[in-house]
């Protein structure tokens, strides 16, 4: 019973820290997915007198990924209804070139305005129009939630760290005498800390398994987050195989630092 | 006989910087039985601790075996300690380990196989008359029995020197005599150097011994 309590005293804060790490990873991925979606749904239309290529557009602003020319005939279809062929021919001659521009990455409103100015300032583009969906306002809310969550993770991490330090004191109390006696009889550091390392290593494995199981479950069976489509559409982003390695490495790092601190503070000088 | 301990102008301090031994000179040779006595606070335990490298000299030379303890590296100190047997007044047994595991500690550190450890531990426990106590825990034993486990642990690897700090300080006369017998036997049968810090040299002690006394920060030989 006492042993289980000792394990739990380290497992619980470790689980909280790993939960923070996993939340951070998830929100980074969701933010990337959201930005990708925004980037793809963002429409920029550029109007030019002369023919331009993607290379020309990229030279004007490096955030432009590609440009597609809108066929004039397609535009004419819409505006030539009821016109004579001569008039249509005239309109075709006077029509400028229209280009659909795709971005290389998501840009915020400030960057979009900058891009517009740069295109106009090049002298090759006469007019630029942007058609943004309702995403931008949602994105701002998402960014705000992400910021709040990161703050919460930080706070949770600090509290958990104090709990880990408390557990390190308990470890020191339980293991100090044995480690000091072993040191006096010439045991090297690895042998002295072996038992403590085994205990803490087991806790690291258990903590990692708990977090991995929970997020694997959510990833496979979905999660009801009240209509937040970016989460519901990206269930797979809740857990990627590489997360397991990141979580275990984080737990292992915590274990190594904690155990090493206990071992080095349990020197024989008090004996 | 070669020197096992050599001290030249040796000065030792507590951590606070309070000097307890100043410019002491003495040698301890292989196979000798040495008592170190002196009033409380004279630095007996500090001197003993310095011999296993727990306290560094503040001045002078202190050699144990071939090692200068002023400049010894951590790994060399660890190696030296595997050749020493240390006995404490408060036994310093690991309470969550069985008697057998406590005795096996120096063998475990030296990397002996489990079979060899078991054979050696059984032999040692019989030697200290605790043959049936292998699976007991230290807290189940009396003080005298615990100290016999402590001596068995100190003898486990046939050390070149046993350092004992008030080994009978907490024991009754009977248990004290058992401990003295065990230490005498180690000195005679194994040619192990034995250095004992004590308040009082036992009345009945059959072995020839040397007596170093600590007084006024010096170490003097009593003839």
TrEMBL record, chain A:
Coiled-coil ranges (or none): none
Transmembrane segments: 147-174, 238-263
Keywords: Cell cycle, Cell division, Membrane, Transmembrane, Transmembrane helix
Highest taxon above the source species: Bacteria
Gene Ontology biological-process annotations: cell division
GO cellular component: cell division site; membrane
PANTHER family associated with the record: CELL DIVISION PROTEIN FTSX
The protein, known as: Cell division protein FtsX
Organism encoding this protein: Sulfurovum sp. enrichment culture clone C5
Name of the gene this protein is made from: ftsX
Automatic annotation (TrEMBL), chain B:
A Gene Ontology biological process term: cell division
InterPro entries the UniProt entry points to: AAA+_ATPase (IPR003593), ABC_transporter-like_ATP-bd (IPR003439), ABC_transporter-like_CS (IPR017871), ABC_transpr_LolD-like (IPR015854), P-loop_NTPase (IPR027417)
Cellular component terms (Gene Ontology): plasma membrane
Regions annotated as coiled coil: none
The UniProt record lists the keyword Endoplasmic reticulum: no
PROSITE patterns: ABC_TRANSPORTER_1, ABC_TRANSPORTER_2
Domain ABC transporter: 5-222
Molecular functions per Gene Ontology: ATP binding; ATP hydrolysis activity; transmembrane transporter activity
Keywords, alphabetical: ATP-binding, Cell cycle, Cell division, Nucleotide-binding
Cited PANTHER family: ABC TRANSPORTER ABCH.1, IMPORT ATP-BINDING PROTEIN
Family: Belongs to the ABC transporter superfamily.
Function: Part of the ABC transporter FtsEX involved in cellular division. Important for assembly or stability of the septal ring.
Protein name (Swiss-Prot/TrEMBL): Cell division ATP-binding protein FtsE
